[in-house]
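Tutorial, part two.
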Amino acid sequence: MSAVLPSTAHTDDAERADARLAWARAASGDAALHLARASMDAGFRSYWRGDANGLSRIVMDSPPALEDVRPWLRIRDLLERGGVRVPHVLARDVESGFLLLEDLGGATCLQALDTLDADTLIDAAIAQLLRLQAITPPDDLPAFDAALLRRELALFDDWFLGRHLGVTLSDEESAGWDAVQAHLVGAMLAQPQVLVHRDFMLRNLMPVEGGVAVLDFQDAVRGPIAYDIACLLRDAFHSWPDAQADAWLARYHARARDAGLPVPDHAQFVRDAALTGAQRHLKVMGIFARLHHRDGKPKYLADAPRFLAYLDAVVPTDPALAPLGALLDRHVRPRLVAG
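Running the prediction step on this input gives:
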């Protein structure tokens, strides 16, 4: 997430820009290369596009003092070895935080959705996901354990309910919310554990020849097998019709089973995906509230009704989620409708 930079930022930016351009020209072999901003990462990482010897290239700039490029590189290399389509690295200077990458284009799958066939797109995304999940997570990869899952759920309570809506839960509501968290965490920890991207959705996929490429994978963990497909089919920024999403989930399940991945039977997997999705929806609502109140990025909260709709589809199916339904009805729904 964004942060306040020191007062020397303008000087540092100019020095960094000079160093970035000099490195890019040397790495690409084009002394006439010029760079223009392509996009900004959620953290301190930035991306720059330039034409080098007639070929478009991307320079990733990850200032070492602010954001170490090595975690990104480590997961990228792991995924590529496993057959996942990720950006090719053409040159790297880890100590300086510069990478020269292939240019996958300017539009993500989310931005290009109107020009793509949805069924073909999801098929391609599933193909990449199956390759990703077949990779054995490194022993030292962080786990999506109870502590991490609880920290994520706390974002909903602290930022969405507390900071955004100004809600203080009663003792009874707090007890119910604790029970819901325990239920969701237990359901996720009980699932088979595989390599998890953690943000496997349309805006982190790029349309490429023969399918899609995967981006934004640096926060990968070992976690529940239903997580990434729930993320894809209940996207934070685009809603699919329920029947279509259910059909794609069944397709994924069949392909995962055929690929030898440790999916449970279909009925159990549908339940796992629903509960895993609920945990994620609550977390993202908290993150979007934090982006608004802490980081000055209000646009994300416009998607809050999407997550309420997702939760409305899950809560009635599981009696253990009844306290969550009561919270949503009492504190969230009236505010979203009023807004």
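The first strand starts at residue 36 and ends at 40. In part three we will examine how such features are distributed along the chain.
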